[in-house]
């Protein structure tokens, strides 16, 4: 096997996934890349390059020099940040994916992972247990780019045989790294405020349900999908996966059991409309049937794990 290239390794998912891949395949097998120099110290255990994924020449140079055979392309501008600069979000999210798909075709990359999102669904999609093939009318530029990206992935698989695999992640919640620019970010911030003994101001209303997932489950899902035999992958757009569904009031209740003086107030902003357009919960029967996906963490287990471990990473 050649090396594994992670693009956008310094982000919330990349920080954790890159380390898990290094533990699995060896530090020397991993090439971490990010556009920000500031994240370099996170990757003192493997090779690290500065890479803007929109620069195809630089991307090709890394693939050739390092002998890359798998790519995890994680770089993206998320939902809330994308609404502040829609054209930039489109350029990065689409242009980056198209560069990755093209180099994967040209250099015969064995396997590619690209994350999609629950943001592909929109106000007219079924809200509860949203099916894999529900009607989709995303109304954020992030969601529009993810939906278009899913079809590009399927196209590259059908037309060129590029083995690109994808998951529609819900909001990801972990204690090792911070999210940035998402609508589900509140569910990470809330733990940090509880730990610091500060009152939490939530940018969503208390009863806003959203699909979420503990980071360990998200990483397991990703590895399971990438390990699955090719013939088991029946969906070449992107798989629905489901972990948890909760509202701000419910996550607050799970945290206040550990920090009885913790307080919350609700002050919704423009992110409320984004959250309201997304599903409450997701049907993931195709992922379960095709590659035996099963989440392990419920809300209470996730809260205990985060509260135990967060002080080791942030204080
Ligand atoms: C976001 O909130 O934009 C992301 C996502 C659900 O894809 N976390």
Produce a short descriptive summary.
With 315 residues, this protein is of the alpha/beta class.
Walkthrough of the structure:
A seven-stranded parallel beta sheet has the order 3-2-1-4-5-6-10, with helices on both faces. It has a three-stranded mixed beta sheet with strand order 7-9-11. Strands 8-12 form a two-stranded parallel ribbon. Helix 4 (about 85-105) packs parallel to helix 5 and helix 6 runs parallel beside helix 8 (about 250-255). The chain is an alpha/beta fold and about 325 residues long. The mean pLDDT is about 95. The protein has helices spanning about 10-25, 55-65, 80-85, 85-105, 140-160, 185-195, 215-225, 250-255, 270-275, 285-290, 300-315, and strands spanning about 5, 30-35, 45-50, 70-75, 110-115, 165-170, 170-175, 200, 210-215, 240, 245, 265. The chain folds into two domains: about 5-170 and about 215-240, Rossmann fold (3-Layer(aba) Sandwich); about 170-210 and about 245-310, UDP-galactose 4-epimerase, domain 1 (Alpha-Beta Complex). Helix 1 (about 10-25) links the parallel strand 1 and strand 2.
State the share of residues found in helices, binned by percent.
40-55%
Output the structural class: alpha/beta
Give me the strand/helix succession.
EHEEHEHHEHEEHEEHEEHEHHH
Residue runs with pLDDT of under 50 for 5 or more positions: none
Overall spatial form: globular
Question: What's the mean pLDDT score?
Answer: 97
Briefly note the CATH topology name of the largest domain.
Rossmann fold
Rg measurement, Å: 19 Å
Any ligands, ions or cofactors bound here, and which? 2-amino-3-ketobutyric acid
């Amino acid at each position: 096997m050649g090396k594994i290239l992670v693009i956008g390794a310094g982000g919330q998912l990349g920080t954790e996934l890159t380390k898990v891949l290094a533990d699995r395949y060896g530090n020397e097998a991993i090439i971490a890349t990010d556009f920000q120099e500031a994240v370099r110290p996170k990757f003192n255990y493997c090779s690290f390059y500065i890479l803007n994924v929109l620069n195809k020449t630089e991307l090709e140079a890394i693939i050739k020099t390092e002998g890359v055979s798998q790519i995890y392309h994680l770089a993206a501008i998320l939902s809330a940040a994308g609404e502040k600069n829609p054209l930039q979000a489109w350029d990065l999210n689409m242009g980056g994916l198209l560069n990755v798909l093209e180099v994967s075709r040209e250099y015969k990359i064995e396997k590619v992972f690209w994350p999609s999102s629950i943001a592909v669904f929109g106000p007219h999609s079924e809200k509860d247990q949203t099916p894999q093939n529900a009607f989709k009318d995303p109304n954020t530029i992030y969601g529009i780019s993810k939906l278009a990206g899913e079809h590009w992935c399927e196209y590259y698989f059908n037309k060129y045989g590029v083995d690109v695999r994808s998951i529609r992640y819900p909001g990801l919640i972990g204690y090792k790294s911070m999210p940035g620019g998402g609508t589900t970010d509140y569910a990470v911030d809330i733990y940090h405020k509880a730990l610091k003994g500060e009152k939490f101001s939530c940018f969503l209303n208390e009863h806003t349900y959203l699909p979420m997932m503990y980071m360990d489950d998200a990483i397991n899902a990703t590895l399971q999908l990438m390990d699955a035999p090719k013939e088991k992958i029946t969906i070449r757009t992107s798989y629905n996966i489901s972990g948890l569904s909760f509202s701000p009031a419910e996550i607050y209740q799970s945290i206040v059991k550990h920090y009885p003086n913790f307080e919350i107030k609700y002050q919704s902003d423009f992110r409320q409309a984004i959250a309201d357009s997304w599903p409450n919960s997701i049907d993931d029967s195709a992922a379960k049937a095709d590659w035996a996906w099963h989440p392990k963490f419920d809300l209470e287990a996730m809260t205990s794990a985060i509260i135990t471990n967060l002080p080791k990473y942030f204080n």
